[in-house]
Amino acid sequence: MTPVQAAELVLPRPRLEHLARLTDDTGVIQHALGALPLRSTGYTTDDNARALRVALQAAAAGDAQGAVLAQTCLAFLAYAQRSDGWFHNFFDYDRRPLPETPSEDCQARSLWALAEAARAWAGCDLGWAAMELFHRGLPACHRFRFARGWAGAAIAAAAWLIGEVDDDPPEGGLSTGEVARILEEAADRLVAAWHRTRTPGWAWFEDVLTYDNALLPYALLRAARATGDRRHRQVGLDALAFLVEATFREDVFWPIGNRGWWPRGGRRAEFAQQPLEAAGMVLACAEAWELTGDAGWLERARQAAAWFVGRNALGLSLYDPDTGGCRDGLEADGVNRNQGAESTLAWLTAAYAARRLPGTSVDEHARGVSMDDRTTTDGREAVGA
Fold first, then answer.
1. What is each CA distance from 301 to 224, 251, 296, 350, in whole angstroms?
2. CA 263, CA 279: separation in Å to the nearest integer?
3. I want to staple 350 with a disulfide (CB 3.0 to 4.6 A). Which of 105, 128, 136, 282 is the partner?
C-alpha cells in the first residue's frame, strides 16, 4: 500500500432520525421523494437487513432508538424468511410478497445481519430468534452461483465465527465446523474467480467493475481474520489494492458510476456515484488496516468516509445535516436529492465504522468534512460547507 498523507477527519455524529422516518411498524420503506418516505415503493428485506446492522451499532453506541429499530427489522426478517430458508426480498406496502427471482445478495445480507444480531443479543430471546433464522437460512448458500453471493456468505459466516455466539445451535442447526466449511467454500470460490479472471493490469474477480465492489475483497479479509488462511488474506489485499488504484484520484474517492460501470478494456462510467460504494470501501480498507497495521489503508478508509460529506468529485455533501439522511447519489450535475433507505444506511454504516478509526473525530455540529484544505483532481474544492 502506497503511503498517503494522514489528515484529521471530522465527521458529523450519525443520527437515526431519517432512518426512523423511513420506518413504520412493519419495517423500512425502500425509497423516498426528497426526505419524504414513498410508501408506494414498499419494503425490501435487503434494506431491513442493512438497517438491523446499523441499528445494532447505534444501540451499542448508546442510542436507545437503535434498540427499537433493531427489533422492528428483526421481526421483518422473520416475516420475510420462507419455509425453505430463503428470504423473500420485495414486498408491497400492504406486506404482500411481490413476484421475484430469489436474490443471493438479499440472502447473504440477511444472514450477515442475523449473525451480528445473535452476537449482540446473545443469551436473550432476541438473540435466540436471530440464531434460529440464521441456521435456517445459511444452508442456502451452497446454491450460490455469483461472486457477491459468495462474498456475502463468507462475511455472514465470518461474523458468526468471530462473534463466538454463546447459545447452543437449535435442533437440526449447523455446527461451528459446518459454518466454517461454508465460509471456506465461499472464500475459496472467490479466490478461484480472482485467479481465473486476473490478467496484467486487471486484478479483479470479474470482467466488469460494477456495484458494491469493495464487498468482494472485504469478504476475503474477513475470512482471513476468521480462519487465518493466507490465501484469502493475500488475494483480498491484492484485489483491494487494485480497487483503490481504480477508484481514488490522489486523496479523493471516485467510485465507479452505475451508468455503464467499467468493463475491462472499455470506458469507465464516472457517474452516478453511489453511497453503497463508499460505505463498502470504508469497511474494506478499515479491515485491511486492522489486519496489516499499514497506515495507508487507514487513510483510504477515512477518505472514503469523507466522500459522503463533501470530499468527492463535485465537492458536494451527500449527507443532509437537516435530516441525518443521505442523498441517493452523485450525478454529473449535482446530487440526487432523494434520501432513500440504501443511501442513508450506507452513510450510517460508514459513519459508525469511521468513528472507530484513529484520526477521526465526531462533531455534534459538523455539517461537512474537515480534512485539510485540499481540492479534487480538476481543481474544484472538495470540502462540504
1. 19, 11, 9, 9
2. 22
3. 282
SS (H, E, C) 99-114: CCCCCHHHHHHHHHHH
Q: CA–CA separation, 70 vs 317, rounded Å?
A: 27
* Cβ neighbour number for residue 9 with a 10 Å cutoff: 25
C-alpha span between 347 and 356 (Å, rounded): 15
**Angle at CA 82, nearest 5°, toward 81 and 83?**
125
Q: How confident is the model at residue 171 (pLDDT cuts 50, 70, 90)?
A: low
Owner of C-alpha cell 435442533: 171
273 by DSSP, 3-state: which? strand
Q: What is the pTM of this model?
A: 0.93
User: Per-residue DSSP letters for 277-342?
Assistant: HHHHHHHHHHHHHHHH--HHHHHHHHHHHHTTBT-STT--B-B-TTTS-B-SEEETTEEE----HH
Tell me how far apart the alpha carbons of residues 184 and 126 are, in angstroms, rounded to a whole number. Answer: 28
Q: Which of 194, 120, 121 has its CA nearest to residue 151?
A: 194
Contact assessment for residue 381 and residue 22, using Cβ atoms and an 8 Å cutoff: no
Written as one string, the DSSP assignment of 331-382 is: ETTEEE----HHHHHHHHHHHHHHTTSTTEEEETT--S-BS-S-B-TTS-B-
Distance between CA atoms of residues 185 and 203, nearest Å:
21
Cβ atoms 231, 283 nearer than 8 A: no
> How far apart (Å, rounded) are the C-alpha atoms in residues 316 and 225?
36
User: pLDDT (tens digit, 9 = 90+) per residue, 282-322?
Assistant: 999 999 999 999 999 999 999 999 999 999 999 999 999 99
Are residues 121 and 143 in contact, defined by beta-carbon separation less than 8 angstroms?
Answer: no
Cα–Cα dist 321/376, whole Å: 22
Residue with cell 491484492: 238
| C-alpha cell read off for 348 | 450510517
State the Cα–Cα distance between residues 16 and 52, nearest whole angstrom: 12
